[in-house]
Amino acid sequence: MANIMLAPMEGVVDANMRNLLTTVGGIDTCVTEFIRITAQQLPERDLIKKVPELARGSVTSAGVPVVVQFLGSDPEMLAYHAQLAVKLGASAIDLNFGCPSKAVNKHRGGAALLGEPDTLFDIVKKVRDALPETVPLSAKMRLGIKDKNLALENASAIAEGGASSLVVHARTKIEGYRPPAHWQWIDKIRRAVDIKIIANGDIWNWQDYQQCRLVSGCEDVMIGRGLLADPSLALSIKQRLAGGEEAVFDWLDNLLLIEAYYVNVQQQLPPPFVPGRVKQWLNMMRVKNPHAQLLFDKMKQLKLLDEITYLLKSEIIQARQQREDRL
Q1: Would you tell me the crossing angle of helices 15-24 and 251-268 to the nearest 10 degrees?
Q2: Using CA of residue 73, residue 79, residue 84, residue 87, what is the dihedral sign?
Q3: Which has the closest alpha carbon to 291: 319, 266, 268?
Q4: Which of 195, 212, 241 is a domain's end point?
Q5: Rounded Cα distance, 251 and 179, in Å
Q6: Last residue of a domain, one of 199, 214, 241
Q7: How high is the mean pLDDT of the chain?
Q8: What is the pLDDT of residues 75-114, one digit of tens each?
Q9: Do 281 and 233 share a structural domain?
Q10: Whole-model pTM?
Q11: N or C: which terminal CB in the chain sees fewer CB atoms within 10 Å?
């Protein structure tokens, strides 16, 4: 059976979102938002704040394993923090060589390192040597910065450095998230290295998963935006692979998730910042869901928490009535 990973999306897939999405089912592993490592050592409390799952066995509330991801260019500092994370309870470590953010790249982080295969090797080897043999080390990369000329060399450097698996986002840095994802390049990488390769990019439904598997040769996938647009996507893929039907997950189910997310965000952030988080998720969900588009249109001008609370409760009552009418 395929292993489905929830992608790390900075400012979106935090512990709150990881907990919610893994309760739906189908997700086998989560990777945290990247923890940026500079020349300064982070205190233990900072790591626990960023990855609260460390305090409960490095799993979500649904029991799904959480991998701690680091981003940076200093091999020694990355190795130090990887060791610290393991001391605090991390069961696996991941290295980010894929983030396309300009703010990150200008400090030689994320995808900016894809022009330096030797640096990738040094980072992976230093971190691998610092970790116990029982702790898996993985990495995530894009196909390159402006072109794909170093894709195979970068993947080989990561593999030779000691990573046991590699997620490949099938786009370059400058391609960002624009379609298409070049799944055929994942296949080239899979054939060139002797470690597990996981496909990432443009998996929005069961048909996309099938096509990605066919073209890339990878059964295992990482999904980000597709799972935010449709929280039941991983479960649907698993059920179809088992010979069943896609998961039955209607608008009421989505609304209940959104409400739970909204309640949890209020415990995390000051009131002025709460509406933006909920609107952010709805904005991603409306790509594939007309109900989310309608709710987004109603919510986008609201700023008061009481107004949003009333709107969500009204929508839930209406959706529950519509479900009962269908039965």
Answers
A1: 160
A2: positive
A3: 319
A4: 241
A5: 27
A6: 241
A7: 96
A8: 999 999 999 999 999 999 999 999 898 878 877 889 999 9
A9: no
A10: 0.95
A11: C
pLDDT for residue 327 is more than 80: no
Instruction: Tell whether 264 and 158 lie within a shared domain.
Output: no
**For the chain, the helix, strand and coil percentages under 3-state DSSP, each to the nearest 5:** 50, 10, 35
Give the percent of the chain with pLDDT over 90: 93
Region of 11 (left: φ > 0; alpha: ψ -120 to 50; beta: rest) is left
pLDDT tens-digit readout, 268-322: 999 999 999 999 999 999 988 999 999 999 999 999 999 999 999 999 999 999 9
Q: Which amino acid is it at 39?
A: A
**246 in a structural domain:** no
The boundaries of the domain holding residue 283 are 251-326
First to last CA, the chain: 33
b/e 122-147 (16+ beta carbons within 10 angstroms → b): bbbbbbbebbeeebebbbbbbbbbee
The reply to whether 237 and 261 lie within a common domain is no
Which position has the token pair 């993985």? Answer: 138
Model pLDDT, residue 26:
97
Residues acting as catalytic residues: 99
